[in-house]
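In line with agreed milestones, work has continued on tokenised descriptions of protein folds. One protein thus recorded appears below exactly as we store it:

>
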Amino acid sequence: MPWRLGSCVGRAYELLRQDVQDHVRFAQSQFQYRYLRFHGLFHDDMKVAIRMADGSVRFQFHHVAQIFDFLLSVGIKPFVELGPMPQTMASGTTTFFYWHMNVTPPERWEEWELLIDAFMKFIISEYGHDEIQEWCFEVWNEPNLSAFWTGSFHDYMRLYEISCNTIKSHSLNLKVGGPATAETGWIDEFLEACHIRSLPVDFVSTHLYPQNEWLVYPEPGTNPYSRGEFFSERIIDTNRNLKNSYYPSASMFLTEWNSLSATNPEHVDWFANHSIDSIESAACIVRNMIKLDHHADGLFWWVITDVFEEAGIPQSLYSGTYGFLNRTGKPKASYWAFKFLKMLSGPILDKQIINRYCGYCATKEAQSTRVILWNDTPKEFEDSSWSDTITFKTSETILGSMMTVRPLHGSGFETWEQMGRPQNPTQVQRLAIESSCYPDSTVIDSSCVKFTLYPGEIAFIEIAPYYDNYIPKELLSDSSNSWNAGLGTVRE
């Protein structure tokens, strides 16, 4: 599945924190990502660019190496986002986010070339050509948004050309791409400009979120997509257009996405949107990942952990921050969506969409049949529950399990909300919230399974033959009776 190619954390400096490393290590143990992407590699807190007294600029990469060493130690390769602009090299002082990433073009373009060349020499020396040929190098982040790039499209193409040519001068096998735009923007223009300049494009990257629907089509009646279909259909269209472009062999990566959603243009919120914390995130993930399985090469969830500094690191357990783990590392409903998807192994037996927003996907592996179910009906719709029965065709005696993620069971946000959203929950409150972070589980001993899912909820069923019976411990040794007798005898 494309979502397993990679995930993200907020920025490079966060990866020097123990809690972020712990959360990444846990996520990697569960999902075995190939790549991790993040902002801020050349930010001033990484101390990469140093202006000397004579006016020259020199480069150092100690913090960079610490981060790359950690990622490689847990089996993840860097998906290198080239940016932001070191302040000493910048043409302006415009910054974004709590941590002040500089978003201006370089004052001297030749210094950007020197930075990229020094960076490439360092990582080749440190990790070797064979290793870094497996990495990806993405030029900048969302240059089509003024928040992230004060330059023009022409300026971005100059940045891409310098970066691409410098990287490829070290090896033509190194993978370079862009434009890393928001809302799938600039892709046609980028590919046209690269073709004119004879520039290679190994991958096309872009970003999209469900709530972008209201920004792209804010006026009633202008949206060509059915409600809730914008996100997946826009990605399918983008991938189709890429295959018909000058670069049909380029990979298609959505290097940022998550389940942030809204019910209308006034509710679009990037910094305190609790749709990302709540149960509705689960079904959004499952439905879209099942649908997009063959329509992208990589789908990078933004981000693993709520230890995330775009607006300052949150202090509350739930804050509308993007992680599938909250700030203490406890799983949200979004985590269970990915966990269920990973457990859905084996060839697909059947896949059905019910009333557009509900559905199931069934697989078969060895003697086990597995089914994932979802109800992603928009919460503003009425009569939105889904009740049905799944019948498994088998003549064998079966034993199965069903796990359901719903409010208070696999989604701790609703427990926290019922408590009044405590900023500093007591020890007992924390225990209650944590216990509600895990799915409801039931044992199945019938081939007919009835279920009801409300909006946002997901379920996972596994059915297997009943043959792996318990072996009583006393059968493991002929000495159990004498042991019991001896242990029960007390000397006077």
About this structure: The longest strand covers residues 398-407. The domain at 348-465 is CATH 2.60.40.1500 (Immunoglobulin-like). The mean pLDDT is 94.
